[in-house]
Amino acid sequence: MNAVKPIASLAVIGVLLIAPALAASATSSVSSATAVSASAPKTVAPAQSPTGNAVAPSAPAGSAPAPKTATPAPAILRSSQLWATIDVCNPSDQPDTVGVRGSMPGDAHSKDAMFMRFRLQYLNSATKHWVDLANGADSGFVAVGAAKSARQAGFTFQLTPVAGKPAFMLRGVVSFEWRRGSTVAYAVSRPTTASHKSLSGADPAGFSAAACLIP
Prior knowledge:
four-stranded antiparallel beta sheet; Immunoglobulin-like; single chain
């Protein structure tokens, strides 16, 4: 595969499929988590002495520095309902078409809104790295519903391959955002993986793959 421009053009059909909310019992509750500002992270002021001077944490004399521990990701970002998959890959009734589907759990805040962004990437044959595909292979963020329960949504990309060029491998990447007003409470991206169940849109029914080969 010649990797710089594997296809001549890419037209986006712009088909956005949003599945109804899943059962409320499947929603992950993260009401105790702290929201993070989209524009700048919040910082915590240092502890102060009665005189108003900042107090640095102390350690016993001669002791080794305490090892740093990683902060665990919020439960919502570890949910089994958070995934991306390819549910359409060049089927006979939709040639040169790739469908990318995402699923995201709710955060139990009915006034929060959930957004997804769908992108296509191609596998660079020289570097073996995945690279964003240009020329319209990006949906931008689209609203998929209130965050009170889990949601699925999908986006369909129509490709126009270059005549005489080798086949090329594609995958999808879905970016997820949970927004609380103008604040992004959580944000994460997931590449497409296999073995997921689409509530609608898969062709053939039940299809789920990590990547898609376009001849």
